[in-house]
Specification:
This protein folds into two domains: 18-85, Immunoglobulin-like (Sandwich); 103-294, 3-Layer(aba) Sandwich (Rossmann fold), CATH 3.40.50. It is 26% helix and 32% strand. It has helices at residues 52-56, 108-119, 136-143, 155-167, 182-192, 217-229, 250-265, and strands at 9-11, 18-24, 27-32, 35-40, 60-64, 70-74, 82-86, 89-93, 126-130, 147-152, 175-179, 198-201, 206-208, 214-216, 238-243, 268-277, 284-294.
């Protein structure tokens, strides 16, 4: 059996309303619509391109605490949340207490890929989105015409996904929202005999389910991929694994997909770093990796 491997950096550079202005000194400077945010980023260990004047002229600055967590310092008036668009997709942006904004802009490269796969499939596609967060991939897949099952252990994230669907004008699309532990849900779907044509997973490095279930990526990822294969249709369309875990390289994700998806279904595996280019310097900020299996 022969496998095709491909390792690249794919860039999220088709945004109009989001922009990575600069990076450096452990932080990133971003434009989200009309608002400028300054947030920590442990990957940006090089010097900044812009001067202190530009880095201080922001709407909000997230300060990380030495004891864990952190806080936002608001320097200019800013709404609690606002809208942002990527092509025909719309999302709410809301600074949270954990430095996040409710959206990972680098994932736009995967949204485009999934939408193209679904639209060109020539059939109705059923997608399972695990660790689905605020629903970036759910909105993209539903917009492309797929049925989607959106699963996340955090009720608040699932509610935000519903709001993003409504904001994008597709709240009537067939999406099933599930608040549950991902592993337990997949096992129940297997017992029920439910099948999916595509699986998306964006697992955290470490987390807890709604009843205190512990998730540790290194211990659980291969097993989760393996059990997800049991609920795939006879002709799966794609399988996507996102990872922001620093120690998990594209090669590791590739090996897992080769030993599972390609072993059973053939097809191709692509494992790439994802990045966003900074406007000022052109330097690319790495934002994890994505492993893609496709027919």
């Amino acid at each position: 059996m022969s496998y095709r491997r491909k390792y690249n950096m794919i860039l999220a550079e088709d945004w109009k309303e989001y922009e990575l202005l600069d990076t450096g000194n452990g932080e990133k400077l971003e434009r989200w619509g009309q608002y400028i945010l300054r947030r920590p980023d442990p990957q940006a260990i090089w010097p900044a391109g812009l001067g202190s004047k530009e880095w201080e002229n922001v709407h909000a600055h997230y300060h990380r605490s030495s004891s864990g967590g952190g806080r936002w310092e608001y320097k200019k008036p800013i709404p609690d949340r606002w809208e942002i668009s990527y092509k025909n997709l719309k999302f709410y942006i809301e600074p949270t207490g954990f430095k996040h904004t409710g959206l990972f802009p680098e994932q736009a490269v995967n949204w485009d890929w999934m939408m193209d796969k679904i639209k060109n499939s020539g059939r109705k596609i059923s997608v399972l989105n695990l660790f689905a967060y605020t629903g970036g991939a759910t909105v993209a897949c539903a917009m492309a015409g797929a049925n989607v099952c959106h699963v996340d252990a955090a009720k608040g994230m699932v509610m935000r996904a519903k709001e993003n669907m409504q904001l994008s004008g597709i709240s009537d699309r067939p999406v099933r929202y599930i608040v549950d532990d991902v592993v337990k849900f997949v096992k129940r779907e297997q017992r029920r005999g439910n099948k999916y044509d595509a699986v998306i997973m964006d697992p955290p490095s470490y987390g807890r389910g709604p009843k205190g279930e512990i998730w540790k990526l290194e211990d659980e990822l291969y097993g989760l991929i393996d059990i997800c294969m049991q609920i795939l249709s006879e002709k799966p369309l794609f399988f996507l694994v996102n990872s922001y875990t620093t120690g998990l390289s594209p090669t590791v994700v590739s090996n897992m997909l080769l030993m599972t998806m390609s072993k059973i279904f053939g097809g191709k595996v692509y494992c790439d770093e994802i990045g966003i280019p900074a406007k000022t310097t052109g330097l690319i900020l790495p934002c994890g990796c994505s492993g893609r299996w496709e027919v």
